[in-house]
Design goal:
- It contains twelve helices and eleven strands.
- It has 275 residues and is of the alpha/beta class.
- It has one domain: Rossmann fold (3-Layer(aba) Sandwich).
- Strands 5-4-6-7-3-8-9-10-11 form a nine-stranded mixed β-sheet, sandwiched between helices. A two-stranded antiparallel sheet has the order 1-2.
- Strand 10 and strand 11 form a beta hairpin.
- The structure holds adenosine-5'-triphosphate and magnesium ion.
Length: 275
């Protein structure tokens, strides 16, 4: 209870929410092949961690999840930019042909600039903190946006920096409250986390709290010359899933997985065979 109950932004009842959401049990991951592996996608209302080292594709994954849901399925989305300014993200993903501004104009996507607060640089973004804020007022603001814009999917890039900023001595409690509030609001949330976080304990706490963990990593080829990207589903509550590493590529069209041999009946794409 505590501030969770006292905060007026929690006053929405599950019944009101039931009335507005479509009640499909899954939300697309944004990666077509991963949807096949996970019987349609992430369980609705789950909180999933995308964990990986530098350059493994975390931001790309987070935006693909948001973009494909908003653009192709009409699922309203919220992106919380923590490590990089929204303008940097918009520009970067335009290389995949993803026009975030177009989705923002129609309120299918809200880009919330938390980077401005953390990096202490001024920002022209419409959605940003009005001044220094604690975790309770940040959450209240985010839940207000979720409610007003009927947001169903959210991504935070990265949750590690967010918790380092807001967590203080109570990182795990802050995270628990945040995830509970999101589930209560019927949001399916994806959080990226870098493995180079100074605080290993922080990563462990995050791993325990999440419903799902996707691990992105790079490994050298047997001859040691090249590197191959992989994704491993380390945890997905309520789903049977393979534990094997799944080869991954970042192409001009975003992230793809080679699920040949993982999902029965899937034939390997020609592009994979050529390697
Ligand atoms: N348009 C593109 N086409 C193909 N590959 C790309 C493209 N854009 C990025 N990549 C690949 O994706 C990698 C970075 O992806 P991304 O920024 O999502 O990683 P990240 O895990 O978020 O990195 P960081 O930890 O630095 O934030 C690049 O290093 C590059 O190899
Ligand atoms: Mg990134």
């Amino acid at each position: 209870m505590g501030w969770l109950a006292a905060d007026p932004s929690y006053a929405i009842t599950p019944l009101e929410i039931e009335g507005r959401v479509r009640l499909e049990p899954v939300i697309s991951t944004g990666v077509a092949e991963l949807d096949l592996v996970l019987d349609g996608g992430f369980p609705r209302r789950s909180c999933v961690l995308v964990l990986g080292g530098p350059g493994t594709g975390k931001t790309t994954f987070a935006i693909q999840f948001i973009y494909r849901n908003a653009r192709e399925r009409g699922v309203k989305a919220l992106f919380i930019a923590v490590d990089e300014a929204p303008e940097v993200v918009r520009h970067r993903v335009s290389a995949f042909g993803w026009d975030l501004r177009e989705l923002e104009r129609t309120n299918y996507l809200i880009m919330y600039d938390l980077h401005t607060l953390i990096a202490r640089i001024p920002s022209d973004e419409f959605f940003q903190p009005e001044g220094p804020m604690d975790v309770a007022s940040f959450l209240a603001e985010i839940l207000g946006i979720i409610d007003e814009f009927e947001v169903e999917v959210l991504a935070v890039d990265t949750v590690t920096t967010l918790l380092e900023h807001f967590g203080g001595q109570q990182t795990r409690l802050v995270l628990k409250r945040m995830l509970s509030a999101l589930r209560y609001h019927y949001v399916t949330a994806l959080f990226t986390a870098d493995l180079v976080s100074r605080d290993r304990q922080l990563i462990h706490a995050v791993e325990y709290e999440m419903d799902g963990i996707l691990h992105l990593f790079l490994e050298p080829t047997p001859d040691g010359i090249d590197m191959i990207r992989y994704l491993r589903i380390e945890k997905m509550k309520g789903r049977r899933h393979p534990l094997s590493r799944i080869p991954m590529r970042i192409t001009t069209d975003g992230i793809h997985l080679d699920i040949h041999g993982i999902v029965p009946g899937v034939i390997r794409r020609r592009r994979w065979r050529r390697r």
